[in-house]
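Our preliminary data section would be incomplete without showing what the modeling component actually yields. Below, a chain of 67 amino acids is followed by its predicted structure, encoded as tokens that our downstream tools consume directly.
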Amino acid sequence: MAITHFWVEDGCIGFGMSKTNCPEVFKLDEELNLATVKKDINYAAFESKIKQATMGCLVEFIKYEDS
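Predicted structure:
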């Protein structure tokens, strides 16, 4: 199934697993201490890595919807 939408919810602790698992899509805002999603990326090319980042999130604040 294809990812239709994904996000980082409020409460992210900035552990960095999203960036470790998928640096093409996620970045760590060290000032705010949270993960953010990069803009202007072809996310479809990284679906499996986005799912891996979601599963690797220790606090389960990376979410996605698929079709």
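The first helix runs from residue 17 to 21. Residues 9 and 40 are 20 Å apart (CA to CA). Preliminary results of this kind motivate Aim 1 of the renewal.
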